[in-house]
Design a protein that fits this description.
The structure is a homodimer of 359-residue chains. By secondary structure, chain A is of the alpha/beta class. In chain A, 41% of the residues lie in helices and 16% in strands. The first copy, chain A, has a 7-stranded mixed β-sheet, sandwiched between helices. In chain A, strands 11-8-9-15 form a 4-stranded mixed β-sheet, covered by helices on one side. Chain A has a 3-stranded antiparallel β-sheet with strand order 1-2-3, with helices on one face. In chain A, strand 12 and strand 13 form a beta hairpin. The longest helix of chain A is centred in the middle third of the chain and has 31 residues, at 123-153. At the A-B interface, helix 8, strand 6, helix 9, helix 10 and strand 13 of A face helix 8, strand 6, helix 9, helix 10 and strand 13 of B. Strand 6 of chain A pairs parallel with strand 14 (317-318) of chain B, so a sheet runs across the interface.
Chain lengths: 359, 359
């Protein structure tokens, strides 16, 4: 079975710092090509986030933190006010890449708060600390993923099959994933877990990334079209659903890749638990409910074309929301790095964040 | 708006007899190419059904009837016993092309019953009658589609949006469709109906065929990925779901393109009526429930490849059932050519078939 060491040695490192550049695996060409990109400028990094070369809420947050550094490392600012204004511009630009994942804004806020705390220090020192903060985020993400894995693995028993959607594995984080982390952790414990991966139209993150990642990790994986989820559940083939989240509201409403809402409703219908792996960085206590989460609308070409080939006629309308919102009543529990949060989600999230603040 | 004449003049004729050959539009290359095939032999016709060049339960039934004729027209049989055995072999072969759609078996049984009734006539005359019966089926199908359209249109009002899955339009029949017939008919009545088309992975009959057919008919159509259905419903964008069926059991359980079950469950969750357009030829009163319907498993390549391009890694498992079964409790009503059948579906189907038999 998979050992932690093997996971560390997995042939993919989603995001890293080379000393000069942000190095990412280009997720738009997986699994047909394993191509790494070294990004040295802000605009290219923005494009990489926008086009999903780097994707997954936690990984986007880390990429954005490095983006802050790329955006200000050549700044000529001599005083903090000028530097702060430049950083604010960089953050605004990065924030425009993708509106739904809160980790992006969480990371930008964190970098800006750091700069603010260091306002009395020389600009060059602040730049250095920003890079350090981005590197810290990678380390933190590793710990968060492992912790989610440990808590989530308690929900899995040997021989179980789970269904997941999109990719909330190592490729979505700097560590070994959120929704897939419990599967990897259970594997370390000697449990045999089987994964059904929904292909996740239109961009096929499930077909391209989750299957690839499971295969590389030695986890048995079966690919299905998204619309086969109901029949897989009806036939008793899966015993739990595990998904990630791009932003979870204070009441427990979950924004995640489009298709998640349907899975949650089906899971309830078939009495299958529906778990959301949610790093605290993806929980937005500033918004009351999912109704306040902005949903990114993406290019119609993603639906009408597949790998450059046209699959639908011209002259039709297309609706292409990247995410949907699952009301908290469908969520069995959130799996955070501080433990499993069950219903009532709103109340229990309040308590959890109050505890963290009190420490 | 669309007139009946315009529908007749639509640039597509799904299936026709040229005098020598079965002429079909090749649905595997739509909408990028509009290519017609003239088929003169049994094996090519079998391949056309198997590979979905001709598809949709009613159209498959008609194709199979012509297939019977192609299979026996050059028979050298002089006596009925020999001819009957040859015809039985042809029917068995055609029946192996696709196991789920009952129309295929219904059509084969009808041709064999016709031959049986004519057993005292010369073989050449029986051959001629078989061709006539296939031609009759085209005419009947036109009437059935129009009738389903007329009844179904009563469920539609001006300004309504409906969601459909796969293609149960004119391309699935010889006429103007089953699930889409009410939309076309409502159009004739001056009602403006908007169609949301689920793309229908893996073979994209919704993206390729339903959108094309609606566009050609002047019906506004919006394409979505299958996994966007829940969010479209949650946002109140659709007021009804209309789908076809490949086989409906005596208790009202509906086998249809995979993904239908999920839509039915979501529709109930969002209090949206779920209608199944079911020609009587697709209702199999010989089986009690959907559990008895054989579900065709198709080639994994349909999921791992899209238009010849690989979209998933090698070395993974794939599950690719072509159909799923929707329990009757999720079905608001069946729309047949004899009227709308509401719950309890089992009881009301019994009554309907008893009435028909009594006539």
């Amino acid at each position: 079975m998979l050992s932690y060491l093997e996971i560390q040695l997995m042939p993919v490192e989603t995001i890293a710092w080379t000393g000069e550049a942000v190095r990412i695996i280009d997720q738009t060409v997986l699994p047909c090509q394993v191509r790494y990109l070294e990004i040295t400028d802000l605009k290219t990094l923005w494009e990489a986030i926008k086009t999903l070369r780097v994707r997954g809420a936690p990984a986007i947050g880390i990429a954005a933190a490095f983006g802050c550094y790329l955006g200000i490392r050549d700044s000529k600012a001599q005083d903090f006010e000028t530097f702060r204004a430049e950083l604010a511009g960089v953050c605004e630009y990065l924030g425009s890449a993708r509106p739904t994942a809160v980790n992006l804004f969480w990371a930008l806020r964190r970098i800006q708060d750091l700069a603010e705390r260091m306002r009395d220090h020389p600009v060059e020192m602040i730049k250095h600390e920003i890079l350090d903060e981005a590197l810290n985020m990678i380390e933190e993400d590793h710990r968060v993923c492992r912790s989610i894995g440990r808590f989530g693995a308690e929900l899995l028993h040997d021989g179980m099959s789970i269904l997941t959607h999109c990719n909330a594995g190592g490729l979505a984080t700097a560590g070994y994933g959120t929704a897939l982390a419990p599967v990897f952790f259970a594997g370390e414990q000697g449990k045999h877990i089987h994964v059904y991966a929904g292909e996740t139209r239109p961009l096929l993150q499930g077909a391209r990334l989750t299957t690839w990642e499971c295969r590389e990790a030695g986890i048995p994986v079966t690919l299905i079209s998204d619309n086969m989820a109901a029949t897989v559940m009806a036939q008793g083939k899966v015993q739990a659903v595990f998904v990630g989240t791009d932003r979870t509201a204070a009441n427990g409403d979950v924004a995640n890749k489009v298709g998640t809402l349907g899975l949650a409703i089906l899971a309830r219908e078939f009495h299958i638990p529906f778990y959301v792996a949610a790093p605290l960085s993806s929980i937005d206590m500033a918004i009351e409910s999912g109704a306040e989460i902005p949903i990114e609308q993406r290019n119609p070409d993603e639906v009408t074309h597949s790998f450059g080939r046209r699959i639908a006629p011209e002259g039709i309308n297309v609706y292409n929301p990247a995410f949907d919102v699952t009301p908290h009543r469908y969520v069995t529990a959130l799996i955070t790095e501080r433990g499993i949060v069950g219903p009532p989600l709103g109340e229990n999230l309040q308590k959890l964040f109050a505890q963290i603040k009190a420490k």
